[in-house]
Each structure stands twice: as C-alpha cells, then as structure tokens.
Amino acid sequence: MHDKVIRVVHVALGQRWYDVAVQGMEAHAGPSPMASRRNALLLASELIPAVTRIELDHVPHGCGTVGGPNVYPHSRNVIPGRVTFTVARARRDGPHNALRMRPTRRSVRK
After folding, report:
1. Could you give the CA distance from residue 48 to residue 69 in angstroms, rounded to a whole number?
2. Which among 69, 36, 32, 72 is positioned nearest to 51, based on CA atoms?
C-alpha cells in the first residue's frame, strides 16, 4: 500500500484574470529632467500594492495577487516606457469581482 496524500478542490472561487499594461515614455536617464519623465515603472509600483489594499477591504472573501511583472526596456540607464503584469482575483461571491475593479481603475486615472 502507498502512503500518499491526495488533495481535492472542494470550493471553486469566482476568478478573474487581468493583463495590465502601463504605458509611459522611455528615454535616456542622463539628460531627461525629473519633472518631465513619464516613468511607467513608477506608476506600476503604485498600482501593484493597490491590488492588495483593495482585497484587504473585502476580507474575508477577497483574494488577489500580482504576477509576472516585465519592464521594457530592461536597461539600467533608460527610463522604463512600458510595464506589464498580471492581476489574479478570486472571491466566493464571484459577480462582485467587477465591482472591485472600479477602485483600481480610479487609481490608474489619477
């Protein structure tokens, strides 16, 4: 006889996945004045923790995570012009996922 543990999924959550792209303008870091930079990574770094804050507002049912961040161009002396990442959200009352996207969209517009 084999001693193996088998796990069974017993609850399916309402799940949504989003592909997010933050567009800025890449430029050489040296001559670009700080005030005129459109750094996509800077905005993405504000949006990523917003996912956690929004889900914490919906405890105990909210659950979200950010994955797969990519920065373009991937260079040490270029202001990032584009950042992509994924957002995965899950909730037992699935239809409310769309409502939880509203605060994220508002964050993007600011």
Report:
1. 10
2. 69
Please identify, in words, the CATH class of the domain defined by 16-109.
alpha beta
Phi, psi angle pair for 44, to nearest 5°: -60, -35
Would you list the domain boundaries of the chain? 16-109
Read off the pLDDT of residues 42-77 as tens digits, 9 standing for 90 and up.
Answer: 999 999 999 888 888 877 777 888 999 999 998 889
Q: Are 88 and 65 in contact (CB under 8 A)?
A: yes
**Where do the H-state alpha helices sit in 1-110?**
40-56, 97-109
> What is the value of pTM for the model shown?
0.71
Residues 9-26 as b/e (b if ≥16 CB within 10 A, e otherwise) read: eeeeeeebeeebebebeb
